[in-house]
Amino acid sequence: MKSISTYLIATSLLLGVTGLTLAQTVSETQTHGHRAERMEKMHAKMGERHAKHLSDLKGKLKLEANQEASWSTFEQSMQAPTKPMSRPDHVDIEKMTTPERIEKMQARKALHDAEMKKHADATIAFYATLNTNQKKIFDSESARFMKNMNGRMRHGDHHSGHH
Questions:
Q1: What is the DSSP letter of 129?
Q2: pTM, two decimal places
Q3: Residue 155 to residue 162: CA distance in whole angstroms
Q4: Mean pLDDT by 10 residues, the chain (163 residues)
Q5: How far apart are CA 60 and CA 90, in angstroms?
Q6: For residues 67-88, b (16+ Cβ closer than 10 Å) or e, as one string?
Q7: What's the rounded Cα separation, in Å, for the pair 54 and 126?
């Protein structure tokens, strides 16, 4: 049971992080022109891959009618936030004292943690509606997804926007 919970939470967190990495601020778009355009295209492709992953997962699970509402809640919670997490302005950060920077980082972390908790809670609630076979499929797919994400992160093939 612990390993299932671990997979679910990790999957939720990875999906949440994926959604959060889709965020980009307006000021970044205005100041970086061509780079911003590339980032926008990359974020769109990431969003498409994320949607395809969810669609493929739903197809493999072969949900029953009574599971559709739970799936919808789960799927909605896995979407990128409607209002992207803004990035701190480097000029403003440089003007801050160390304690102010720490407070700013802690506030951003709290927002990120809240978003990740939302993903984890939705995943656990959805998982509870699955039958034994569907749970095996979900566990297998989430483990595969995590392995792929971990490989991309380890080899530098991720785009968090921190350049």
A1: T
A2: 0.63
A3: 16
A4: 51 48 44 70 82 92 94 88 67 90 91 91 95 95 76 49 40
A5: 45
A6: beebbeebbebbebeeebeeee
A7: 13
